[in-house]
TrEMBL record:
Domain of life: Bacteria
Protein name stated in the entry: Protein yciE
Primary gene name: yciE
Signal peptide range in chain numbering: none
InterPro entries: DUF892_YciF-like, Ferritin-like, Ferritin-like_SF
A Pfam family assignment: DUF892
Database matches in Gene3D superfamilies: 1.20.1260.10
Organism: Pseudorhizobium banfieldiae
Length: 168
């Protein structure tokens, strides 16, 4: 039973992590003005993240001791809000946000790789398929952000140099 309990705990952690992602991404998308491509990609990932939450919730609902961890979800949302506020107070928030997003996507990738291995070990075929599907979208977002970091940084520097609105 240990293995299954650990699996459920990781699944709850993933749910809290997606809640945190949703809070962060929604706040970022709302604030960005001068970087339309970045804004559009984040808005797309907000929709994907809502779907990830729904899929994880469905998995949790089928488990005997499932149910989300409200405390962890709340902690995650508070952490995300704090992170968001921290970024807002800086004059380079778009670059900091892009860096934070890139790092966060890789944390998600690691979490889903762990869940895939655990689901495989437990023979949780359906759950494994869900994690693999989500993982692909996290990798796609991480790749996009990686490709975009250079552009966002240069555009930020150019706009800032010309006293155009650069920070967001
Ligand atoms: Fe993500």
């Amino acid at each position: 039973m240990h293995m299954k309990d650990r699996f459920i705990a990781w699944l709850r952690d993933a749910h809290a992590m997606e809640e945190q992602a949703l809070t962060m991404l929604t706040a970022q998308a709302k604030r960005i003005q001068s970087y339309p491509e970045l804004k559009a990609r984040i808005e797309r990932h907000v929709l994907e993240t809502q779907e990830h939450l729904r899929l994880l919730q469905e998995l949790l609902d089928t488990l005997p001791s499932g149910g989300i961890s409200l405390v962890r979800d709340l902690t995650g949302r508070l952490a995300a809000t704090a992170q968001g506020l921290g970024g807002v107070l800086t004059s380079d928030e778009v670059v900091r946000g892009a860096m934070a997003g890139y790092a966060f996507e890789h944390m998600e990738i690691a979490a889903y790789r762990v869940l895939i291995a655990a689901a495989d070990e437990l023979g949780e075929v359906e759950a494994k398929a869900v994690f693999e599907r989500i993982l692909q979208e996290e990798i796609a977002m991480a790749d996009w952000l990686e490709g975009n970091l250079d552009d966002t940084t240069r555009l930020y520097l150019l706009r800032d140099e010309r006293d155009l609105q650069a920070k967001r």
